Amino acid sequence: MSVYSGKKLRIEIYGESHAEKIGVKAAGFPSFTFDESALNEFLARRKATDSVFSTSRKESDSPIFYGIKNGRIDGEFTAEIKNENKISKDYSALYAKPRPSHADYAWHIKDGALDFSGGGRFSARLTAPFCVVGGILKQYLKTRGIEIESYASSVGKVFAQSYKSGALSAEEIRTKRNAGFPSLDKKDEITEEIRAAKAAKDSVGGTAECVIFGVKGVGDNLFGGLEGKIANLIYAIPAVKGVEFGDGFDLAKMRGSMANDGLYIDGGEVGFYSNRAGGINGGIANGNPITFRVAFRPTPSISLPQKTVDLERKENTEIVINGRHDACVVPRALPVIESAAAIAIADEIL
Ligand SMILES: Cc1cc2nc3c(=O)[nH]c(=O)nc-3n(C[C@H](O)[C@H](O)[C@H](O)COP(=O)(O)O)c2cc1C
Question: Which domain holds residue 318?
Answer without folding.
Answer: 2-349
